[in-house]
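Recall that a protein's primary structure is simply its ordered list of amino acids. Everything else, from secondary elements to tertiary packing, is in principle encoded there. The following example makes that idea concrete.
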Amino acid sequence: MYKAKQMIVMRRDLKMRKGKIAAQAGHACVEAVLLALVRDGRLDDIRIAGDDWIELAPTPMAMEDAVFDATTGEIGAPAAAISPLEAWFSAGVAKVCVYVDSEEELLDLDRRAREAGFISALVRDAGYTEFHGEPTYTCLALEPLYPEQADPLTGELPLF
């Protein structure tokens, strides 16, 4: 079960081809995660695990802050000390794709996310392969967030 999720918001009104949707969502996801890693000073903490899985090294903590988990027998950081980005990497990099039906809705969501202090990677396609050469806002992705952070922004949007 995921603890944090990355929200992807697509513009359904553009009626993009499936490959275009995948490419645009990919651009937004990568940008949002990289921006969050850089903001948090964690870019150098990305590691490749033994099973070829990408992981984020745990944040170092003082022993007096450690918590013993009687269920697993492990010592770790208290839940409140784990950032959404770290929780996202440790529990399967969940992504949820929802949609809006206009550029206005997409730009409004981008504005509200930024005002709330979250990273929003807004993608503007150059228009070379679709959109008749017209640069067009296609989607956005939020940085990985806990549900209580993401849901006030995207919880009412339908799944894509």
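Strands lie at 6-11, 46-48, 54-56, 67-69, 74-76, 95-100, 120-125, 136-142. The CA atoms of residues 69 and 97 lie 33 Å apart.
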